[in-house]
Design a protein that fits this description.
about 80 residues, 4 helices
Length: about 80
C-alpha cells in the first residue's frame, strides 16, 4: 500500500466525523482533534493523525479498520 495522500487522510477524518452516533461514547475526545485536522497540512497533519489514532481505539464502525490504516500509514515514517 502506498502512502495515502492528504486528501485521502482528510476523507478518512470526515468518515470519523460522519459517525455522529458515536460522538458521546467512543469518539468523545477525537471529535475536536478531527475538526482541527481539517485545517492542517503536511507535518502538522501527521502529528494530528497520531492524536486522532490514540483517541479512536474503541471506535467501532464499518470503516474503522480502513480509517485507522490510512491514518497510521500517513503518520508513520
Amino acid at each position: 500500500m502506498s502512502k495515502p495522500t492528504e486528501s485521502e487522510v482528510l476523507s478518512a477524518i470526515n468518515t470519523i466525523l460522519s459517525d455522529k452516533r458515536s460522538y458521546p461514547t467512543s469518539l468523545n475526545y477525537a471529535i475536536n482533534y478531527c475538526r482541527a485536522a481539517l485545517a492542517m497540512r503536511g507535518e502538522e497533519l501527521k502529528v494530528q493523525c497520531l492524536y486522532i489514532l490514540n483517541n479512536i481505539q474503541r471506535w467501532r464502525h464499518e470503516k474503522a479498520k480502513e480509517v485507522r490504516a490510512t491514518l497510521r500509514s500517513f503518520s508513520s515514517r
